[in-house]
Each structure stands twice: as C-alpha cells, then as structure tokens.
Amino acid sequence: MERVSLNCSKIQDFVSPKKLSEMMCNYEPMLKEILDSYQADKENVLGWMDISKLANDELIAAIEAKADEIRQNADVFILIGIGGSNQGSRAVIEALQVDQKPKILYAGNNLSAAYMNDIFKQIKGKSIYANIIAKNFATLEPGVCFRLIRQYMEETYGSQEAANRIIATGTPGSDLDKLAQHKGYLFLPFPIDVGGRFSVMSAVGLMPMAAAGIPISDVIAGANAMREYMYNTDVKDNDAFKYAAIRNILLKTGKDIEILSYFEPALGYFSKWWVQLFAESEGKDGKGIFPTACSFSEDLHSLGQYIQSGQRIIFETFLNIEEPLGNVIIPRDQSSDGFDYLDDKDLAWVNRVAYEATIKAHADGGVPCLSINIPKLDAFYMGQMFYFFEMACYASGRILGVNPFDQPGVEAYKANMFEALGR
C-alpha cells in the first residue's frame, strides 16, 4: 500500500545522513515512549492517538444518517467554530468537495459585522442547517455567532424545526450540552481528552465532512493506515519521527522559520490547519519554530524573493502530490505570443516542472528543503496526512521540551478581551 512519506534528500548539505542517524538513536527511547504514551495518559490529552475510540461504529452511523438528511434538504450548511473546531474539516472540504451541495459557509471564526451580514445575505431564502462546535462553549467568536444564527433559524423555521436543523458538538456536561438538551439539538461529543487542533478524526471534523459529501470512512481508514505504519516501523526509520527530529536539528542551526509550500491551491486550508497545529503546539516558553505557508507558484513572485536571497533562517517543507489533480493540454496558437515551446504540453506537467525547479533553486540557494510525498489528494491520503503531522508534532514538541497540548498564550488575549467587555 502506498502511503504519505518523507523525502529528505535535499537537506543532506545541512543535516547529513550520519547526523540524522545519530540523533534518531539519541531520541529512540523518547520516541518509543511516545508510541506507548496513550496507554499511560494521565493528562487526558492523547485521545486522538486511538482513532477507533474517537470514531466508533455507532458515532459514524449517527453522523452519516444526519449527513444524508442534510444533503437531501439543505442548500447551505453553516459550520460555526474557530481554530481547531473548523480547520481540519475545512481543509478536507475545500480540497475535496465536488458538488457544492450543500454550500458550506463558515461562521464563528471572526468578529466582523461585515462578514456576518454577508452570511445573512447568503442564507436568505435558503434551506439551512448549522453545526456549532465548541469544546467548552466559552469562546466568544463561535458563541456570539451561534446566538445570531440560532435566532435567525428560530424566526425562520420555528423553534422545533430549527432544533432539527442544528447539531451541537461539545463536551458532555458543558453549557453547550445543556443548551442542546433544552432546545432538542442532536448532540455529538467533543472528546474531553482531545485538543481542538488534534480533533479532526472525531465528530468535530467528521460531521462537517460528511455533510459536504466527503467519504469519512476513507478519511478514517487513511488515518488508521498511517497509525498502523507508525506502530509497525522501527522508530529510527519512522518518517514522522524523522521529520520531527530534522525540524529540531535545523532549529539548532538557526533555522527559526518553517514554510509549508505547495503547488496545488486545493491545499490552502490544509496549510492553515498545519500552521495552527505547530504554532499552538510549539510556540511557548520562548521556544518554537515559526510556521507559515506559501502557495506556489503565486508566492514565488513575492515571498519567493526572500526565500531565495534573504536571511538564511528558513527551511521549507513541500507538499508534493504525486498524481496530478487534473489535466489541461495547452493548445497550439497561430499568434506569435512567445510560448510556442509549450505547444501540446500538459499544464499539470508544467506545474510539476515548476515544483522541481523551485525545490532545486531553494536548496541550491541555502534553504534546507524537505518533501512530504502524497500519492494522491483524496480522502484516504488526507486521513494519512492528518495523523502523520499530528504524531510528528507530538514528537517535535517533546524533543523541543515543551508541552505540545496546551496553549496558554491564546488564553491571554481572551482574558483581556473579556475584561474589556465586562464579563
């Protein structure tokens, strides 16, 4: 079976195979402990590691039944959540949804009145369903947006029909759970032992994906396949762990910034999920690699200049989709436009050439470059990608010496905001 894999051939001028092998041997006890840590979890943060407990048959059946109803009846599905409550599912939906039935709108991810007014314009006269996702239902953005949308739906459909059209995903026993019981919403569990940015394989990510027509069984199968690879591969040869080690080796040489680069726009929201995963997990205690992302070839005409010739504080990780997402043959043209050398060429091939030329130029210019090879962009391999990076992030945080599962910096702005709002 093919799998998502790591290619580190372009970093050998910066991290030799011998150096990497030595570091992997040094890290081996810690990495073995990571694989065993779920069984000894005392902090209730590792629930994401066991996918079978996150997405059991009963939960999947409930999600798929509701998704069938939504896809039959809804023009619009509103996903209300912020950060980890929507990034994972949005990454898959934006990459793979093919029919726009229903149209997926995102709310509760900002506090813009203009954005909210636009939501109301888009849903006017439409058949809508909504999914509010909030682990503890204390975050302002989804809370206030859910109130606005909930009241709109109750005014439009009446309380009972509105309740049939609302799904609440939260922690059992939370204020959202109590509200769902009072109103009669379908309530799905946000596992207490899973942080938002690690929650994509739970109801948090699966319900919106299913509503968009994504085959969630394939996503789960992909994640399980990657999990099986992790547990059946010597830790020194494990690609996710090697990636984690390389990141930290490069950090020690002054590479403070990692760019996730990709040549398919469909990966744009996956890159946002990746940025959140590593930023919230590692950016603390005065430590961490700054994660950002570039969409090529567009950003080659802006940030590409800095990457090629700026400070040597950057390394790149490329997402390389091996099977083209489509084919477009460039036609011959009688006009003298200067592009005759592309006659009858496939645009997908041109994009591949651009990828290969870019990674060579950046590596030759002093930027360590890694590639994550993805056989095909589909639900199965996206499931693999999520589990690969989640495990790599866990390992990288441990190597770095931080707790990868808290986010104290996020709480600081909330405290200031709530004080200013008079809470």
Written description of the protein model:
It is a single chain. With 423 residues, the protein is α/β, with parallel strands linked by helices. It has two domains: 5-38 and 220-409, Glucose-6-phosphate isomerase like protein, domain 1 (Rossmann fold, 3-Layer(aba) Sandwich); 48-214, Glucose-6-phosphate isomerase like protein, domain 1 (Rossmann fold, 3-Layer(aba) Sandwich). Helices cover 50% and strands 13% of the residues. The chain is built from 16 helices and ten strands. The strands form two sheets. Strands 1-10-9-7-8 form a five-stranded mixed sheet, with helices on both faces. The protein has a five-stranded parallel sheet with strand order 3-2-4-5-6, sandwiched between helices. Helix 1 (17-36) crosses helix 15, helix 10 (216-231) packs across helix 15 and helix 11 (239-252) packs across helix 15. The longest helix has 22 residues, at 379-400. The mean pLDDT is 94.
Key features of this structure:
423 residues, alpha/beta, five-stranded mixed beta sheet, 16 helices
Report on the biggest sheet: 5 strands, mixed
Total domains? 2
Strand content: 5-15%
Radius of gyration: 23 Å
Number of helices: 16
What percent of the residues sit in helical stretches (DSSP H or I)?
40-55%
CATH domain topology of the largest domain? Rossmann fold
Output the strand order for the largest sheet: 1-10-9-7-8
Shape from CA axes?
globular
Average pLDDT for all residues: 94
Distance N terminus to C terminus? 54 Å
- How many strands appear in the DSSP assignment? 10
